[in-house]
Structures are given as structure tokens and as C-alpha cells.
Amino acid sequence: MDDLDRASEHEMAQTQRLINRHQQSSKIKFITSAHNCTLCDEVIPAARRFAVPGCQLCVNCQSVSEQGI
Q1: How far apart are CA 13 and CA 7, in angstroms?
Q2: Which residue has the higher pLDDT, 44 or 68?
Q3: Are the beta carbons of 35 and 45 closer than 8 angstroms?
Q4: DSSP string of 31-49?
């Protein structure tokens, strides 16, 4: 096996790793965020819904929830 064969095998292995990574990432489900907070019914801004996929609470209610108040 010469350098060209080793380089070719390395390239094929790298390509397969990238294909596998892409296939795994495409299996990730997108989680829908709520448009209104499930506790106080305030509108959740689009920026928060984009930044925190799957969010169900507005910033204020989330903060209170995390503090355990």
C-alpha cells in the first residue's frame, strides 16, 4: 500500500464519517415553542422562541420557575 492508497482510504473514511454525522443530525426532531406562555398567557417574543426551541414559558415565568418561587 502506497501513500496514494492511504490518502484515498483516509478520504473515504472521512467522507463516511461526515455522511454518518449528517444522517444523525437529520434525525433530530424540531420542537415547537409556544406562542403564549403556558402560565401567564403573555406572548413569547419570536426571538426567544428562536433562541430557546421548545420554550413554553416567557422569560419572567421561566425565571420564577428556575428560582423555585
Answers
A1: 10
A2: 44
A3: no
A4: PPPPSB-TTT-PBPPHHHH
CA distances from 46 to 53, 54, 56 (A): 10, 12, 12
Reduce the DSSP state of residue 56 to 3 states and report it: coil
Q: What is the pTM of this model?
A: 0.54
Name the residue among 48, 47, 53 with its Cα closest to residue 33: 53
Q: Around 37, how many Cα atoms within 13 Å sit in the side-chain half-sphere?
A: 17
Q: Are 33 and 52 in contact (CB under 8 A)?
A: yes
Is residue 34 predicted with pLDDT exceeding 90?
yes
